[in-house]
């Protein structure tokens, strides 16, 4: 992961921003979307349900969550964006730390604090790009210092909980290694454009490890054959997502601000149910 990260950082230095954007979209729309395209299979596995009626109920519940998310953004976009960032932060933290922690109320806070460190480190180092996006979606103009305040508070929460657990011998992860990873993220986020920086973290540090964990959970091991099985079972849902996104782009590509808002709604709509499914998987 470190090697791949620095390879992508080399691309940042040697290619222009347009090339970065093309590669970023490619990574997000392949590995990024794919890692959340097998949720119904995971629901069946965690619930031990295999009949057609169970599948249809799971599908209906999944689509309902997506629909409610879109409605939420349509009615109160500012509040919905806050929930989207919080849910995604928790999800990032859970993916990174779930193998080394046990479920508890404090664990949920720990996951969220770590994910918020990632998000607001990205926001603060790319404030000039982030603020217009937030303004387009919510109508509010965020000052860069607010990103820094949240970053400091979330890092303090993350570090405080870690030290509390370490003192009570409830966690054995090397803190120096984790701080080194955060330093790597600082370098990447400061050097790359917003989209390219996000795609590097989202794909290399989140989506690929998640694909590994999901494949291992579904098939018991990670091999070329089991990865192909994963792709086959998730391909239809991935294709539907891509067709939907392609249609949105066709309709709104000439209205940059509107399409950007719809793009965020789309990503949030498929993120919320995925977060719920992965939380259930980790608890089981």
Structural class: mainly alpha
What count of helical segments does DSSP give?
12
Percent helix: over 70%
The profile of the biggest β sheet is:
none
Q: What layout of secondary structure does this protein have?
A:
Blueprint: H1 2-14, H2 17-34, H3 39-47, H4 52-75, H5 77-97, H6 105-125, H7 127-138, H8 144-167, H9 175-191, H10 194-219, H11 224-252, H12 256-283
Helix pairs in contact: 1-9, 1-10, 2-10, 2-11, 3-12, 4-5, 4-12, 5-6, 5-12, 6-7, 6-8, 6-9, 9-10, 11-12
Describe this structure in words.
- It is found in: Cell membrane.
- InterPro entries: Blh_diox (IPR022270).
- Belongs to the Brp/Blh beta-carotene diooxygenase family.
- This protein has 284 residues and is mainly alpha-helical.
- The protein has one domain (2-283).
- The chain has helices at residues 2-14, 17-34, 39-47, 52-75, 77-97, 105-125, 127-138, 144-167, 175-191, 194-219, 224-252, 256-283.
- The protein is globular, with a radius of gyration of 19 Å.
- The model has no long low-confidence stretch (mean pLDDT 84).
List the main descriptive attributes of the protein structure presented here.
mainly alpha, 12 helices, 85% helix, 284 residues
Summarize the structure.
The chain is an all-alpha fold and 284 residues long.
């Amino acid at each position: 992961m470190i090697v791949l990260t620095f390879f992508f950082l080399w691309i940042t230095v040697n290619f222009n921003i347009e090339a970065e954007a093309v590669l970023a979209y490619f990574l997000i729309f392949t590995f990024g979307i794919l890692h959340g395209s097998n949720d119904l299979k995971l629901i069946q596995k965690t619930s031990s349900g295999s009949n057609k009626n169970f599948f249809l109920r799971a599908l209906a519940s999944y689509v309902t969550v997506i629909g409610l998310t879109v409605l939420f953004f349509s009615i109160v976009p500012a509040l919905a964006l806050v929930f989207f960032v919080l849910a995604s932060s928790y999800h990032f933290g859970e993916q990174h730390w779930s193998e080394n922690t046990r479920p508890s109320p404090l664990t949920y806070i720990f996951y969220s604090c770590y994910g918020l460190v990632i998000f607001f480190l990205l926001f603060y180092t790319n404030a000039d790009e982030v603020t217009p996006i937030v303004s387009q979606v919510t109508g509010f103009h965020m000052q860069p210092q607010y990103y820094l305040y949240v970053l400091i508070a979330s890092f303090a929460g993350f570090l405080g909980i870690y030290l509390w657990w370490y003192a009570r011998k409830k966690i054995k992860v090397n803190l120096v290694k984790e701080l080194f990873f955060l330093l790597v993220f600082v370098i990447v986020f400061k050097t790359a454009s917003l989209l390219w920086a996000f795609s590097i973290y989202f794909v290399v540090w989140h989506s690929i490890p998640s694909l590994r964990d999901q494949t291992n959970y579904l098939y018991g091991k990670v091999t070329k054959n089991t990865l192909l099985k994963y792709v086959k079972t998730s391909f239809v849902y991935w294709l539907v997502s891509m067709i939907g996104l392609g249609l949105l782009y066709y309709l709104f590509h000439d209205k940059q601000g509107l399409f950007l808002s719809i793009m965020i709604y789309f990503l949030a709509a498929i993120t919320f149910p995925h977060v719920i499914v992965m939380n259930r998987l980790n608890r089981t």
